[in-house]
C-alpha cells in the first residue's frame, strides 16, 4: 500500500526539514561545472536522455504557460515513452488536483495518467492524513487556497473549512473582530492552517488563519513559490499568499512542495525509481532544479520557457546550477 511505503520515508525527512525553511537550505552548488547547452546538439541530447530511466517534470513553465502549450511538448513526451522512460509530473500548482491535471493533459493532447501526477496539494494531504494522523474531532484544516487543495483533502477524508466557501470570501466586519477575539467566531476543531495559491485572499481569511496558528494550529504550505507563470507572464505565487501570515506569525510554514525533500521522498516512495538514474526538468532554479540537486538525482535540466533565465545560472557564483539546459522542452526531439 502507498501508505506503508510512504510513512517511513516521509517521516524522517519531515523531521529533518521541520526546523528550517527552503530559504535556509545551504548553497547547492559550490563548485559545479558549466551546464551543457543541448539545443541543436543532437548527439548531446541523445546521450543525455540515455543516461536516465526516469524523468520528473514540472508543468507550468515547462509544458505550458496558462492555456498556451509549448511547441512540440506532446511529441517530446511520446518520444520519451517510446524509449521506455518512466515519467512523473511533479507540480507545485496547488490550485489543481491530480484529476484536474489529467483533464488538462487530455485537453492539450499530452499522453499522461492521473497516477503519474504528484502535486503539492496531494503532498500536503498525504502529510496531514498519514504523518500527522490527527484524531477527530480536532482534525480540521483551515484552507487558504483553491478547489485543488480541497479535492486532495477530500481524497484523504480530511475535514476542512475556508477555501472556496463564499462565506469566507468577503470583507471583515466588526462582528468578525469580536468573534475572533472572544473565540466565538473560530472553529474549535481546526488543527492545521494550510496555505496555497488563493485567487480570493481576504483580510478575514488572514485574521482567522492567524488566530488559529496563535492557538496552536500547525502552519503548513503546499508550496512557497514567489511567482506563478501564466500566459507568458508572471503573477504572485503561493508564497505571496502565505507571506502576510509569515509576517504576522513570525515564522515560516512547513512547505510540502518543491524543493522540500519531504516531497522528493514521497515521490520516490510512490514511484520507486533509482535517484541516480532520474532527471528533474523544470523552469525555476530555486524550486525545480534545487529539488533535483538536493534530492541527489542523477541530473537536472532547465528549460528557458518559464521563470529562470540562463543568466541566472551562468553567472559567476550562481548558487543553483542545472546539469544541462535547453531553450524549450521540444528541443529534446533533436
Automatic annotation (TrEMBL):
UniProt cross-references to Pfam families, sorted A to Z: Hydrolase_6, Hydrolase_like
UniProt GO cellular component terms: cytoplasm
Origin: domain of life: Eukaryota
Keyword Metal-binding recorded: yes
EC number: 3.1.3.41
Residues that hold substrate according to the record: 258
Active site: 58 (nucleophile), 60 (proton donor)
Cofactors named for this entry: Mg(2+)
Protein name, UniProt field: 4-nitrophenylphosphatase
Binding site for Mg(2+): 58, 60, 283
Keywords assigned by UniProt, alphabetized: Hydrolase, Magnesium, Metal-binding
Reaction equation(s) it catalyzes: 4-nitrophenyl phosphate + H2O = 4-nitrophenol + phosphate + H(+)
MF-aspect GO terms: alkaline phosphatase activity; metal ion binding; phosphoglycolate phosphatase activity
The record's free-text note on cofactor binding: Divalent metal ions. Mg(2+) is the most effective.
